[in-house]
Design goal:
The complex is a heterodimer of chains A (379) and B (135). Chain A has 379 residues and is α/β, with parallel strands linked by helices. Helix content of chain A is 36%, strand content 19%. Chain B is mainly β. Chain B has strands spanning 4-6, 12-13, 19-25, 31-32, 38-39, 44-45, 48-54, 57-65, 76-83, 88-93, 106-116, 122-130. In chain B, the strands form three sheets. Chain B has a six-stranded mixed sheet with strand order 1-12-11-8-9-10, with no helix packed on it. In chain B, strands 2, 3, 4 and 7 form a four-stranded antiparallel sheet that branches. In chain B, strands 5-6 form a two-stranded antiparallel sheet. Classes of the chains: A alpha/beta (379), B mainly beta (135).
Chain lengths: 379, 135
Amino acid sequence: MSGVFVIGAGMTQFKPHPDVEVHELARQAAWDAIVSSGVAPRDIELAYAGHAYQGQCFGQKVLLKIGIVGLPVVNCENACASGASAVWGVYNAIKAGQADIGIAIGAERLASAKGGFTPLVADDLESSMGRVMPAVFSMMARKHMERYGTTPMQLAKIAVKNRRNGILNPYSPWRDPISVEDVLSSPVIAGPLTRLSCCPVSDGASAVVLASARVAKRYTAKPVEIRSAVLASGIRNGVGMADDHSEMTVRAAKKAYDQAGIGPDDIDLCELHDPFTIAELVHYEDLGFCAPGEGGRCVDEGRFEVGGDIAVSPSGGLLARGHPLGATGVAQIAEMFWQLRGEAGERQVPDARVGLAHTVGGGVTEIEAGATSVHILVS
Amino acid sequence: MTAARDLRPELFVKTVPPRLVCSRCTETDQLFYPIQAMNPVTSRAGTMVREEVEGGGKLLNFTHVVRGMPGFASPFALGVIELDAGPTITAQLTEWKDCELSMGMRVELVIGEIKRDADATVVIGPMFKPVKGKR
């Protein structure tokens, strides 16, 4: 056995937590991850903490509450990919022999603290001129519709699918199904995207404990291998994410597949970056699950439902589990851990053996986006 | 009288018509907006010179934002504009309520109110106006 393994995971529910401060949310997730791993807190040798807006030395403040002090702690900010970047950091530290056991924590408290808005990035030129994420993804949708004939109904079906999945996930706050008509008739945010086509801004935290091949089986008979971990940033382009594909995701996915020796046809389940319905559809194509332009047809055919070719967003995804920015990428790895061990309860994907997690983060003027990550995990 | 400020220094000049402040590389002739200290493509320093350009261009994509960030007068229209001079920029559109926006339509630079600060100071910056009847 070689490589890096997930041996424990923890998570809070993703919803407004007005009475719980963010370090406590993160402590709950971290402690659940540590307990589920069987690792003694003193045996954790390093930590990465991902968040976008939670202040200095966030990870140290969280771990202090558990009695874990003195170890190397790296706080990383990569917008919506912050949590995934934390996982990538721990993975690489273990891979490099810096430690046998590390913890990746991700957390954010925005729904309660900032009135539901992701704060304006004032130092970014186009953000300061009015660019907001729903607008960017609305233009992504317009471009995809113009080029490939994708329809609002196909996009709405993605929101319906993810809500159906999220209802089965105890970490999601939603329990009511929605229909295509509900999605299409909900208030327009940035046409064609309606409120139910967009993810909420949530509060929440997640954590995973990773271990080297040398020690993983001391703690569990069912470690989940991270077969590849890829982090990339955007290259110069004039349109940002307002395009019909994500070059950055295509590039990162190819590298991850090559590293893992696994192709898109081998993937059983996927947690991808779906803050808006159009993003999920475009990423089907970017990740190689179907050819460019075929995402809409695949939605109509149900190919990415649980029980279809690849179960996409079985947790409900960002759309129907929630999106506390820094927590999201870690939560995807936690979901993979539970699914690939057969411990996902009612939302379990049958016979899941290979999973892919994907995030995108950060609108940055002059490049496509700030960061993307692709992790491929194997049971 | 309402206070006003420019969004950033060295973004535009209020000539008639207004112009955008760019950087041109003396080695590659490539134009960049906003202004750059060094060439971000060749990674070479000492090759950039300041250049003002007119703001005519083509609307590559657009959307209507029903609810923007605090301080922005919602609803507003946002577009991706490919400038005739070369660079591409995402910015607000003006006078969009009276015309049907379409991909490929001509737009021209105007300097207008982008948003207001919390103290009601008007923030001025580059915006683009559809040129009716032209593609």
